[in-house]
User: What shape does this take?
Amino acid sequence: QVTLKESGPVLVKPTETLTLTCDVSGFSLTSDRMGVSWIRQPPGKALEWLAHILPGDEDSYSTSLKSRLTVSKDTSKSLVVLTLTNMDPLDTATYYCARLNGGAPIDAFDVWGQGTMVTVSS
Amino acid sequence: QSVLTQPASVSGAPGQRVTISCTGTKSNIGAGFDVHWYQQLPGTAPKLLIYINTNRPSGVPDRFSASKSGTSASLAITGLQAEDEADYYCQSYDSSLNVVFGGGTKVTVL
Assistant: This one.
């Protein structure tokens, strides 16, 4: 069974750096046909793609947030890590990780984690 | 402001057919990039509903169908059921190498 589970702080202060972890199981991060993406959803609003980490460690970022985002993976621990610097209240959202089935950026997100809600407030 | 445009809401009585449009541009859907659709039930994570324009993953009822033409795509739900009440999102890709989503459509079963 394929699962992804996000973890990280519930509350962060403005200007701090957010670090989120996505634990994956049921598939390998070394596969050349699987990637992992991060997507967020502010309360009551639409989905917003943040970043991919693709086979071969290729990464890709939302143009609007590229300067603040880093995505990496630890294949030995089956983890994908997202960092978002200089947090702002507008970054308050539920953050999801999702599997990119096919390994290419145009593929679909076929399995999603449950999401983790992050609030930015002083 | 989402890159792909969807109606904010659609509604229908049980058993009826509803459609959700997803309008893009020559830079995304019109450039030939595939469209995927997701269903988000209240309080839950999105779930893949349709992939590569018209394909249903295993377990998705055939009441759900989708199409793509030009710079737009659409999702149809036939035989609407109470359990279909959810938010629906289209997703594609653009020539700026970004994944793009629609703003989401809330389906209400009357």
Q: What stands out?
A: The mean pLDDT of chain B is 96.
